Amino acid sequence: MSHQFTAFTVLLKRDLMLAYRHRAELSNPLLFFLIVVSLFPLGISPDPNVLQNIAPGVIWVATLLAAMLSLDNLFRSDFDDGSLEQIALSAHNLPLLVLAKTLAHWLVTGLPLLLVSPLLGIFMFLPTEAIGILLLTLLLGTPILSLVGGIGVALTVGLRRGGLLLSLLVLPLFIPVLIFAASAVNAATSGLPVTGQLYFLGALLTLALTLSPFAMAAALRISLN
C-alpha cells in the first residue's frame, strides 16, 4: 500500500511540474472562461436584474466549455511520448495512477476556475449567498467534469482527430451536473433551499470518484492495444 501511495504522489508531482512548465497552455481555459462570461453583458444587456437571472447558467456553461477545452491535455502528451504505455505496463495500480493524473488536471484547470468565480459572480450581480453556493457547486461539480471527461479522453486518446468524438461522448454526461449546479445557484438567488441539489452533486461526485478511475484504466488499456 505504501508503494502505491508513493507512486500516486510521484505521478501527481510529475504532472504538476509538467503543467508548470507549460503555463501558457494552462492559461487558455481560464482566459476562455473569463472571456465567455464577460461577453454576455455586452451581448445581452447590462441590466443587473437580467444578468442576475442568467448568471448561474452562464457561469456553468462557460465552466463546461472551459473543461472541454482542457480535457485533451489529460493523457495526450503522455500518449505521444510513450510514457502512458509505460504507466499502463507498470506494476502499480493503474486506476490509482489515472486518479493521480485526474487530480493534477483538476488542480491546474478546475481549481483556477473555482478561485476566479467569485469575481465573476460579483460582475454578474449575484448576491453574496448565491456566490457562496456557486463556489460550493463548482467545488463539487468541477471534479466530476475531470473524472467523467477523463473516461472520454481515455477512449479517444489513440485517435488523431478525436476532439469532436470526445465532445459527443462527454457533453451528455455533463448535463446533470449543469442542471443541478445552476439550479442550486438560482435557488440561492431566490432565497430557496438548495440542499437537494447539493446532495445530488455530492452523490454524483462520490459515484465518479468510485467508478471513473476503473473506467479510465479499462479505456486506456483498450486504446493502447
Explain what the structure shows.
The structure is a single chain. The chain has 225 residues and is mainly α. It has one domain (2-224). Helices cover 86% and strands 0% of the residues. The chain contains nine helices and no strands. α7 (128-156) packs antiparallel against α8 (163-189). Keywords: Cell inner membrane, Cell membrane, Cytochrome c-type biogenesis, Membrane, Transmembrane, Transmembrane helix, Transport. GO terms for molecular function: heme transmembrane transporter activity. One of its GO terms (cellular component) is plasma membrane. Belongs to the CcmB/CycW/HelB family.
Q: Tell me the strand percentage band.
A: under 5%
User: Which stretches are poorly predicted, pLDDT < 50 over at least 5 residues?
Assistant: none
What is the H/E string?
Answer: HHHHHHHHH
**Which class best fits the helix and strand makeup?**
mainly alpha
Provide the gyration radius in Å.
18 Å
Q: Tell me, what's the shape?
A: elongated
Total helices: the number is 9
- Helical amount among residues, as a percent range? over 70%
Number of strands: 0
* Largest sheet: number of strands, sense, barrel closure: none
For the termini, the CA-CA separation is 28 Å
